[in-house]
Amino acid sequence: MKTAIRYFSKFGHSKQMAQAIAEVVNEQPQTVATPLTEPTDVLFLGAGIFLGSVNKSVMQFIDTLTAEKIGCVVLFGSSALISEPTKGMREALAKRGVKVYEKVFECKGAMGPLNSGHPDKQDLEALREFVKKIVK
Ligand SMILES: Cc1cc2nc3c(=O)[nH]c(=O)nc-3n(C[C@H](O)[C@H](O)[C@H](O)COP(=O)(O)O)c2cc1C
Predict the structure, then answer these.
(1) Phi and psi at residue 53, in whole multiples of 5°?
(2) Disulfide-capable partner of 29 in 18, 117, 134, 136 (CB 3.0 to 4.6 Å)?
(3) pTM for the whole thing?
């Protein structure tokens, strides 16, 4: 199974999450600045939320994806206030006809003193378990 990991991370939270995924799938995580060049069975894609949405570069990356190139996208993300940080990515992928895995991994992300320390060790361990169930 060919996997890939892409993320956008302003404060390092999605980067930490991408690294936790990498420990399970043994694939080097890259930012969304790195295009996906090879056909991929499972693409892990994640980002945090800023002023209500993910960074524009995540949407630009999604615009390069095609259903022919990707089996399925598995979304992950964190946020301080909104409850579904991956929702916007799911909608953008659906518009392109790219299949998105039904389950997502979402957790709290620190914003100053709010949710301080998140994603924490337990969040990252829960993410590893989530990924193990997908790729086993
Ligand atoms: C300037 C700023 C704006 C933010 N805006 C939002 C927001 O609108 N909604 C939300 O739920 N979280 C918001 N957050 C929290 C981030 O989504 C959270 O810190 C996330 O974990 C960041 O992930 P990243 O470091 O991978 O980019 C904001 C954080 C900062 C610092």
Answers:
(1) -150, 170
(2) 18
(3) 0.98
